[in-house]
Task: structure prediction
Amino acid sequence: MPAASSISAGTPTDSGGPRRLAAIAFADIAGYSILMSEDETGTHQRWMALLANIIRPGAERHRGRIVKSTGDGVLAEFPSALDAWSGRARSRKPFIGRKPHKIA
Result:
């Protein structure tokens, strides 16, 4: 049996592509279904504005990128756990103290 190799940036995978370490973060809006049932168009517009103006730039400031967004969920990738945590903290800051079920 071959010896186990360490996983590090640039190490080829079985498929030939390089391996890299990453931290994955996921976030969603609590109460999004309720908000959508009350004002679908307005809720969607506010969420898209928050995604474009707060969440995406917050991830990018911490070397992250939004991998996918669906409905009220966002999946982001960061090069380290510290970057993921810092990006999350910065993106949450505008929402601290807001009433539940209010996204804008």
